Amino acid sequence: MRVAAGEVAALRALYDEHAPRAMAIALRILRSSEEAEDAVQETFLEVWRRAAQFDDRRGSAVAWVVTIARSRAIDRLRASTVAGRVFDGVMPNDDVLRTALPSPADRVEERRDGARVATALAALPAAQRETIELAYFEGLSQSEIAVKTGTPLGTVKMRVKLAIDKLSGLLKEGEE
Amino acid sequence: MTVSDDMTCEEFTEMAPAYALAVLDETEGTACTRHLAQGGPHRGCQEAVGEARQVMARLTAAVPARPPSPGLWRAIEARIAVVPPGAVDRRRRLRTIGGWVVAGAVIGFTLVAGAALSLPFKLIWAALHND
After folding, report:
1. Which residues, other chains included, contact B7 with Cβ-Cβ below 8 Å and sequence gap of 6+?
2. More reliable by pLDDT, B89 or B15
């Protein structure tokens, strides 16, 4: 990765390409644009500092950036939950499928991708979809999901695994 | 699934989606990190994490992309100007080296000071027993 060699232009290219996605997930979790931008800033500083550790066996560059962004957002969420959660109204607490509806300004490919993901999520059994929404988009741990939904922890663990495996297959099918 | 100290690759790959999602409890997450850090051969562990992370990256398409404000890149650029790539690792290494240097200095000082302080007592002891 050229970022590891200290190329600011390479980091800028990575930022231009992936910051909107990093921002989207941070905003979905934190529901505050200010908090989300702070999380995205921390994300790209971490990318800059840890670029040499990037391992493409553990996913592509976008997967790495999104993973870091989500982790930093969850860190902030857990810190702000202690102090009282921040909400500036930029993202109403609607479910994922409704937020997945593409806006007219989105690019065609993004609309297609959004539709594919929405379709894949809709194809999951309701319990698995709810588990993934709580885990991925709300930043809850498996134990927290078990408490919130009144479901045995073992069942939650099984749902997470089944849902990710199924989404992986569905999203691959959607690309073909 | 319970977490054993010597997690197998099969156990890890079962937990890989939850590990990639960062939804494991602390003990389980630490055990997974330790397993990944172990030297190989692994049977598909990195790949299982990679696959789950790819799914996660795709899931962001379910929320509308949101370009950050124009000032955010400037803020990042200003901060990286004073932080070279890999700075965290270098700082950690320096802290470790610094820690050993300080520890060595403290041990050395203690030995020297101990020897210096005990010298008068040794002289008195020697003088008393020579008589």
Report:
1. B31, B32, B34, B35
2. B15
Q: Which residues contact A103 (CB under 8 A, 6 or more apart)?
A: B64
Distance CA B58, CA A117 (A): 7
C-beta separation of B16 from B49 below 8 A:
yes
Contacts of B17 in chain A (CB under 8 A): 160-161, 163-165
For residue A106, give the DSSP letter.
S
- Residue A60, min C-alpha distance to chain B (Å): 7
What ipTM goes with this model?
Answer: 0.71
Q: For residue B2, is pLDDT > 50? A: no
Q: Which of residues 61-120 of B touch A (CB under 8 A)?
A: 61-69, 72-73, 75-77, 79-80, 83-89
Q: Choose among A4, A36, A44: nearest Cβ to B76.
A: A44
What are the C-alpha distances in Å from A99 to residues A78, A88, A137?
23, 17, 11
Minimal Cβ distance to A117: which of B18, B61, B72: B61
Mean pLDDT over all residues of chain A?
82
Spell out the alpha helix ranges (H) of chain B.
Answer: 9-21, 26-37, 45-59, 71-80, 87-130
pLDDT, tens digit, for every residue of A98-126? 444 444 555 677 778 888 899 999 999 99
Query: Cα(A1)–Cα(B120) distance, rounded to whole angstroms?
Result: 64
Does residue B63 register a pLDDT over 90? Answer: no
Q: pLDDT value at position A2?
A: 65
pLDDT at residue B71, as a whole number = 94
Chain B segment 29-68 residues within 8 A of A by beta carbon are 46-47, 49-68
Amino acid found at A62: V
Nearest alpha carbon to residue B5 among B20, B37, B27:
B27
- Tell me the pTM: 0.68
